[in-house]
Specification:
binds pyridoxal-5'-phosphate, globular, 2 domains, four-stranded mixed beta sheet, single chain, alpha/beta
Length: 391
Amino acid sequence: MIPSVLPTYNRAPLHFVKGEGAWLTEADGRRFLDLGSGIAVNALGHAHPALVKALTDQAQNLWHVSNLYQIPQQQALADKLVEHTFADTVFFTNSGTEACELAVKMARKYFYDKGQPERVEIITFDGSFHGRSSAGIAAAGSEKMVKGFGPLLPGFVHLTFGDLDGVANAITEKTAAILIEPVQGEGGIRPVPDAELKALRQICDDHGLLLILDEVQCGVGRTGRLFAHEWAGITPDIMMVAKGIGGGFPLGAVLATEEAASGMTAGTHGSTYGGNPLGCAVGCAVMDHVADPAFLAEVNRKAALLRQRLEGLVAAHPEVFEEVRGSGLMLGLKCKASNLDVVKAGYDNLVITVPAADNVIRLLPPLTLTEDDIAEAFTRLDATARQVEAT
Ligand SMILES: *Cc1c(COP(=O)(O)O)cnc(C)c1O
């Protein structure tokens, strides 16, 4: 008999009932160190007092009004995002997937309104992940995601990750945009080198294309800058944001330049819940912390400490781990053992990591991780590796 919850997930037998900082308490009382943050969502950790206050204060007053009316919390969050980024304008969604939908629509509408309606194609890369909607799976194009779900949304050109020559050769009079994650998350924590992001920006400028960055996982302080592309010294035309921006409340956004957004006039797009008062009140509180240079300096300091411990871990367990990769607190351990076995052994040792493609385990801890947490992470991952070695 089919379970009452549609069985699309492979769930671990863990029932968390409470969270605090980087710690989760299981129903049986065991305390787990959370190095997954609900897949890069709990950017400020669990139950951060500022987020609890922002949410409960807002909940006392007003939960929802339609986007038919003014929403001051939404205005405030948009202003913060515009102030701290390349963007001139923001549309709020409830998820990364919806941000992908709008990014694709915005790019196509831009060229349509410019009198180039044939420019509909978007170049994407293997190993990418842009969500599970029809546009998202067509954009990523991996067999695992698209099989059985055809016909797919047309207009995506898939290239090999890192193949810059391929990009130059793939551009035609139909090309509208290049869509890329500055650091691939689901694909196995694969950072795009700064030089390559710069080159992609240059190619877009040379051919009049839009550069769309998917920072759903790598954005919001995760790599030690507010957004990952800042390391490369470039800016996109359109950017997808979600996960960390809501700190655990479902919230996403599309950020864009005035030019790239020029086709999105009144009535061309909308959302019932996107940018609702609860989500935006929390988003404002997240931004107030994460956009602070002192906060980001701490993220970088912690990231360096964690990375150093992980390098030691890999050196101590060459049969289990191959290398550390990633940026800031978006780290991956490429495994020699099965990554799923390592994640599972982690559960036995009360540490949570997240599997990714390419036999990698992801470490996406709360950005508020303490030095004690880092020491605990090492101890528990070391015990995890020993357990994997013994089996
Ligand atoms: C998670 C993710 C998405 C999809 O976001 P949802 O909120 O799950 O819809 C899109 N792009 C990237 C890079 C992601 O990591």
